[in-house]
Amino acid sequence: MNLDKLQNWLQDNNFDVAYISDPITIAYFTGFSMDPDERIFSLVAFKDAEPFVFTPALNVEEAKNSEWNGDVYGYLDSENPWAIIADNVKKRTNEYKNWAIEKNNLSVAHYQNLHAQFPDSDFNGNVSPFVDHIRLYKTPEEVEKLKAAGREADFAFQVGFDAIRTGATERSIAGQIEYQLKIQKGVMHQSFETIVQAGKNAANPHLGPTMNKIEPNELVLFDLGTMHDGYASDSSRTVAYGEISDKEREIYEVDREAQQAAIDAAKPGITAEELDSVARDIITKAGYGEYFIHRLGHGIGKHVHEFPSIVQGNDLVIEEGMCFSIEPGIYIPGFAGVRIEDCGVVTKNGYEPFTHTSKELKVLPLKD
Ligand code: MN
What pLDDT score was predicted for residue 50? Predict the structure, then answer.
């Protein structure tokens, strides 16, 4: 179990206590997940004592009825959560000198409140790199959830393609996608805000859906994903609405070739930066290198962006079980943008995408 790995890490590195504060990390270790807003939610684990989950009082029952079988302690809004955490730590063990905290997540204010309860303890340990490392390798159960999320993304593309018509706003198409996901697939959350961009808006890679109206004969870019049982999908497709120009067709085909080449090259043994280069070299040779303005990909799992980062300068060797996106893009300001993206898992000798919506240029008929 994942929590055993954390306890082993504490022992190997001679830390007494780990204070885990990122809800996604807590879910990874305990199977229990929730959004605490500004309240305190944590997992406290020990070198040699039983871990506990700490939540606001209003979430205690939910935590006890979850997959988590260990102790759960709560606090009322009128109580000092840090004092209750400290009491429970001291009840469990006399060893709380060396702490490891999640430096990527714990706010300075929360850190100071925790430290004030243990003024003689040392909080220099950082559990974040360890968590990032073990989350690089997905179990078969995790991969199944990522595939299920990918199937929801494929469904979402179909809804989006069907919704395109002259005069529809980008935002209304995004809304139809999210509505149909909710009512037909029971999706509770998107993994990020659905992106629909038409024409020159697609040259701004992360511009949200605007009130811009779809016009005939332009490219429309979709980037979307869902959360399925705590795991994210993330995929992009670009389609033609009516007839597009030769140049638009050219950037589409260059991007598609780059994306397919990287999918074919992804396997154990290649490094992250070599994989980035496979796609980047094709786009650069075609004359569009300056318009590919982001890394090739990012890891995916419980979070839509995690490690590994598929980027120049990262010599990490790709291994079986790693899951990440392959998403080259070409963005020509004031003209158009193309991005084609799949996430997938590295297998024994290749890469298996989680999304299967066709990447041949789709030309949608004009609709009023
Ligand atoms: Mn992505």
Answer: 96
Query: What is the amino acid identity at position 256?
Result: R
Alpha-carbon span 252 to 293, nearest angstrom: 16
CA–CA dist 339, 326 (Å, integer): 10
> How far is CA 324 from each of CA 20, 224, 264, 344, rounded to the nearest angstrom?
24, 15, 14, 6
CA of 125 to the centre of ligand 1 (A): 31
User: How many A from CA of 267 to the centre of ligand 1?
Assistant: 19
How far apart are the CA of 87 and the centre of ligand 1, in A? 43
pLDDT, tens digit (0-9, with 9 covering 90-100), for 79-120: 999 999 999 999 999 999 999 999 999 999 999 999 999 999
Question: 3-class DSSP state for residue 22?
Answer: coil
Whether 1 shows a pLDDT value over 80: the answer reads no
CB neighbourhood size of 212 (10 A): 16
**Which residues lie near ion ligand 1 (Cβ < 5 Å)?**
234, 325
